[in-house]
Specification:
Layout: E1 2-9, H1 13-22, E2 29-32, H2 40-48, E3 51-54, E4 62-63, H3 71-76, H4 79-88, E5 93-95, E6 100-103, H5 108-121, E7 124-126, E8 133-137, E9 140-145, E10 148-157, H6 172-179, E11 188-190, E12 194-195, E13 208-214, E14 219-226, E15 230-232, H7 234-240, E16 249-252, H8 259-270, H9 275-279, H10 285-295, H11 306-317, E17 319-321, E18 325-326, E19 334-336, E20 357-359, E21 367-368, H12 373-391
Parallel strand pairs: 1-2, 1-10, 2-7, 10-20
Antiparallel strand pairs: 3-6, 4-21, 5-6, 8-9, 9-10, 11-19, 12-15, 12-18, 13-14, 13-16, 14-15, 16-17
The structure holds dihydroflavine-adenine dinucleotide.
Length: about 400
């Protein structure tokens, strides 16, 4: 039977990186994926430019049932370590906003870099390969592949989460984790647009505005985008990871809290101007038209008392909205929840139930914010497992 030191299932961000690192000390490493090409999500990430990490990455940017679990891996392999690797390959990058780093050219440069690392260390990549059965015995893990059985001392699960099933996402890691006695925390679509009944915002589709979007647990200051089915844009994707069915979110369209003073001073100098025309200097005109009947926005600026201006600004600052759902795994960037970290060692990602079994990347109950954090978790968790495997 074909025998390997380590078999990694899933040639996405975490699996590709792990394979190259784990094989560095000459350990025979096989990387398997059922897809035709490796690293598909890296290729499409960041609109084809891949937001591969975030300069400000720190533990607070990650969500999981245990808020401490991810600290060790993130500290041992940081964003600066990955940036150094990207620099060593001469891949040009830039900061877009809020510490988010993107390739200047294209995301495939990151995939090519990971494939080169893998080839350098002699790890083998097998695509178009499905695993039908996995068992564990005295000789380690035994996997059934279409070409016959293979075995390995170590098995690394890097098959990601459930988001974008069209791209081959399966939830396979959760099934295998259960098979070997692991718990799975509730999984749900995250970094996902939110929907509203009766296409409430359809007339505003395409309009975007800076906003602070919050709930009782957190808040995000980023752009908000109206869509045919609801709300999207970075601020909404971020809050979606903290939203639960039936809950409201608050949208503040005056995040800098400057509107009241601005309108008051404009009332002095331009009091004869129409209130909605004036508001449209600070907010998108289509949004002002949409809100005008709801907020009773009529008359000239001079007609508005301080109390009335305050009332309008308060309404624009605390617009309470209750989504009826999300766009689901079809468009979600990530899966919240996953393999319960209580069952994993935080320094090595190894199972506490079955030595030699590892879980890395998105399948673990560690989910990053929008902005390069999920790839950083893929790199850091992959590195933690690979170091342990390479040294064992
Ligand atoms: P990933 O999903 O990358 O890889 C899993 C691999 O396992 C796949 O190759 C799949 O084919 C394979 N697989 C699954 N089931 C299998 C099975 N049963 N047998 C064999 N193989 C199997 N993050 C970020 O930080 N910056 C960004 O710019 C973006 N942008 C972005 C855009 C879009 C559209 C999406 C959907 C997601 C992002 N993300 C992101 C999130 C990021 O892509 C994600 O967190 C990482 O790819 C997770 O890496 P993993 O290696 O864990 O899973």
């Amino acid at each position: 039977m074909e025998t390997w030191d380590t078999i990694i299932i899933g040639a996405g961000a975490a699996g590709l990186f792990c394979a190259g690192q784990a094989a560095q000390t000459g350990k025979r490493t096989l990387l398997i994926d059922h897809a035709k090409r490796p690293g598909e999500k890296i290729r499409i990430a960041g609109g084809g430019r891949c937001n591969f990490t975030n300069m400000h990455a720190e533990p607070g940017n990650f969500i999981g049932q245990n808020p401490h679990f991810h600290k060790s891996a993130l500290a041992r392999y940081t964003q600066w370590d990955f940036i150094a690797l990207v620099d060593a390959y001469g891949i040009a990058w830039h900061e877009k906003t809020l510490g988010q780093l993107f390739c200047d050219q294209k995301a495939t440069q990151i995939v090519d870099m990971l494939l080169t690392e893998l080839e350098k260390t002699g790890a083998e990549l097998r695509l178009n390969t499905s695993v039908s059965d996995i068992s564990h015995g005295p000789d380690g893990f035994r996997l059934s592949l279409p070409t016959g059985p293979v075995q390995a001392r170590n098995l690394v699960m890097a098959t990601g989460g459930k988001s974008i099933p069209k791209m081959g996402a399966t939830g396979f890691a959760y099934d295998l984790a259960r098979q070997f006695g692991h718990e799975i925390t509730e999984t749900r679509p995250a970094l996902v647009p939110l929907t509203f009944p009766e296409a409430r915002f359809a007339p505003l589709a395409g309009v975007s505005a800076p906003a602070r979007v919050s709930n009782d647990r957190t808040s995000f200051d980023e752009a908000l985008l109206f869509t045919h089915r609801g709300l999207s844009g970075p601020s909404i994707l971020q809050i979606s990871s903290y939203w639960r069915e039936g809950e409201a979110i608050r949208v503040n369209l005056d995040p800098e809290a400057t509107l009241f003073d601005t309108l008051r001073s404009q009332r002095q100098s331009e009091g004869r101007r129409n209130l909605t025309t004036e508001l449209a200097r600070h907010l998108p005109a289509r949004l002002v038209d949409f809100l005008a009947p709801e907020l009773g926005l009529t008359g000239n600026l001079a007609d508005q008392s301080d109390a009335r201006l305050r009332e309008i600004v308060d309404a624009l600052s605390a617009w309470e909205l209750t989504p009826n759902g999300s766009e689901g795994y079809r468009t979600a960037e990530v899966t919240l929840g996953g393999v319960d970290t209580d069952g994993l060692d935080s320094k090595t990602m190894m199972s506490k139930h079955l030595p030699g079994l590892y879980f890395i990347g998105e399948c673990v109950d560690v989910t990053g914010w929008l902005g390069g954090f999920n790839f950083q978790w893929a790199w850091s968790s992959a590195h933690a497992a690979a170091r342990h495997i390479a040294a064992s």
